[in-house]
Amino acid sequence: RVFNFNPGPATLPLAILEKAQKEMLNYNGTGMSVMEISHRSKDFEAIILGAEALLKELMAIPDNYRVLFIGMGATGQFDMIPMNYIVDGKIGNYVITGSFANKAYKEAVKVGPTHIAASTKDLNFTRVANLDEIQMSENPAYLHITSNNTIFGTQWKEFPDTGDVPLIADMSSDILSRKIDVSKFALIYAGAQKNLGPAGAAVVIIRDDMIEKSNQNLPTMLKYDTYAKNNSLYNTPASFTIYMIKLMLEWVKEQGGLDVIEKRNEEKAKIVYDAVDASNGFYKGHAEVGSRSLMNVTFRLPNEDLEKEFVAEAAKVGLAGLKGHREVGGIRASIYNAMPVEGCRKLAEFMKEFQAKKA
Ligand code: PLP
User: Fold this and answer.
1) Which of 125, 127, 74, 129 is nearest to 104 (CA)?
2) ipTM above threshold 0.95
3) 280 and 194, same structural domain?
């Protein structure tokens, strides 16, 4: 296998792929694969409730929150959030720190009144917003932020204190990568395909009062309480994805939980950023140092030809998926939980060697 630096779908730990392979033909003595068993069976109930319990344990999620599994990816949440909470003249507040934040905002604009509480667009999204730049509207429905900007490689280190106003975060690309105080948030969501497992579901961590407040005039599949009342089993869920999420959560627990994972992620990111910083400007980081993401490291080379060569040469030595997003260009190394330290070391060595050859 190669070291896979793709931004999502992303690398998964070998141990969980092997476990899934082992159980593929006969899950828990059923004589069927987990893809073939009923989502109403005891076996599947144990998987979905087990995944919820494990995530609660790992993230220290308080008792007054639920974990829901919803289809349509994180992008579906861009729609569900305003539809559920921009009601009764309330205003959806958004902090724009990258492309996905902007996509979330644009969906809300279609639903009802919105307000941009802060934006770093003028800085080409080289950092997240400073807390003192955030200015909410009157009568806010919520404040929406994107905790890690996957494309630009920036990450919030501190979160705004919004008082009674619900704080909502898209944590698609850094959920479960570090310890956070869940009680600061009314709702957290993430597409599964980076730190949680394969694509196919969004994980939504939602406070009880937000479930109660969800807009009752919406069609069934767009209301949060449909998922909460039915343990995310109102209809057939993405059962295989949820099974893989449970394996991934078990793996995180086996690693020692978020204490260990967070330290490892800091170590991994430092290895790659050190390689950028030691290059005398050959590699130029996109993010301001204070906003540097521990999950997506973005940098440029002196010209696009060299960038193309870098990506191609890296792939030849087993470093896959390093091409940056077209909005930033250059290189993006996505180093989610499943990327081993060894992969970051190999990348840093490759960067040094490539520079020595080309500079
Ligand atoms: N939000 C963020 C921060 C992302 O990185 C992504 C995908 O890369 C999305 C949302 C969209 O997720 P999905 O493809 O699950 O809809």
Assistant:
1) 74
2) yes
3) no
